[in-house]
Write a structure and sequence with these properties.
By secondary structure, this protein is an alpha+beta fold. Helix content is 33%, strand content 28%. The protein has helices spanning 8-17, 24-37, 82-85, and strands at 5-6, 39-43, 49-53, 56-61, 64-69. A five-stranded mixed sheet has the order 1-5-4-3-2. The chain is elongated, with a radius of gyration of 16 Å.
Length: 86
Amino acid sequence: MTDIHLTGHAISRFQERFAGNLAWPAAARRLARLLRRARFLRVCAGKARLYALGEMRFLVHSGVLVTVFRPTYTPAEPVDDLWCVA
């Protein structure tokens, strides 16, 4: 994660969701700093890599930060398969 390029889409999404009071250059600097601290979670479809820092998720593909988002769902618990029990 040493050479990641930020897209305009990622910076604008970061401003909308996390840092609405920052100007564009300040948001880009903060986003780059946060991205350096993020931890790898998993590989997504299309070989994109998902990183996380607290409630923030960063999607990186081919060295480019594609988007930033906050997960809005709760992980589902495993469900017993009743067909196997019968």
